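Changelog-adjacent note: as of this version, every example in the card shows the full chain rather than a window. The one below runs 72 residues end to end.
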Amino acid sequence: MRKLFGLSSFALLLLLLLPATAAAYIDPGAGSILLQGVLGAIAIAATVVAGYWRSLRRFIARAAGGRRRGDG
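Full-length structure tokens:
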């Protein structure tokens, strides 16, 4: 078992240390796709926060007994 672990560790070390060529191409449209993803994530986050904010406001209003400002 110890020999297998040592051999596996050595093989993993070789894979990590040996350089590998990457046959990849990033075209100019990749930046716009990335921008769309970021803007979409911001829109989703804003929608989720707005929904929770509305729920929180309703909860606080009910907990306060429906009192409004100025009812002091």
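Structural remarks: The chain has a mean pLDDT of 84.
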